[in-house]
């Protein structure tokens, strides 16, 4: 993702990406030092085909990592909800225990 930031009437382009995306960009820049057309869809057809396959692989790996991270966050969120429910049930159980104790004391006094 490219973001243009303005500070004191100067514009700066900030590129935001993953480590793999950064490595990809660095790799393509190095290749472009040898064949500048490769950055713009030109250059050696075999090299372009290899880059496309590599790009697809990088994409697949990043999607798999993202899906795994989402699953882990969901598991943590599920655990947090379960803990919140347990805390709520525990508080209600303590409250009920207090009522039962008060009722038992009332019944003892009446006997």
TL;DR of this structure?
By secondary structure, this protein is mainly α. The chain has helices at 19-34, 45-110; strands at 2-7, 10-15. The protein has one domain.
What does this molecule look like?
The longest helix has 66 residues, at 45-110. The chain has helices spanning 19-34, 45-110, and strands at 2-7, 10-15. With 111 residues, the protein is mainly α. It has a two-stranded antiparallel sheet. The protein has one domain. The chain is elongated. A hairpin with a 2-residue loop joins β1 (2-7) and β2. It is built from two helices and two strands. Helix content is 74%, strand content 11%. The termini are far apart.
Individual helix count: 2
Q: How is the largest sheet built, in terms of strand order? A: 1-2
Low-confidence stretches: none
Helix fraction by DSSP (H/I, runs of at least 4): over 70%
């Amino acid at each position: 993702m490219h973001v243009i930031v303005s500070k004191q009437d100067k514009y700066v382009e900030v590129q935001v990406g993953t480590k793999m995306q950064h490595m990809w960009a660095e790799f393509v820049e190095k290749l472009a030092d040898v064949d500048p057309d490769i950055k713009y869809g030109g250059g050696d057809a075999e090299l372009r085909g290899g880059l496309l396959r590599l790009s697809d692989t990088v994409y697949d790996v990043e999607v798999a990592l993202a899906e795994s991270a989402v699953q882990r966050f969901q598991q943590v969120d599920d655990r947090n909800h379960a803990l919140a429910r347990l805390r709520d049930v525990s508080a209600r159980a303590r409250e009920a225990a207090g009522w039962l104790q008060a009722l038992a004391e009332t019944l003892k006094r009446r006997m």
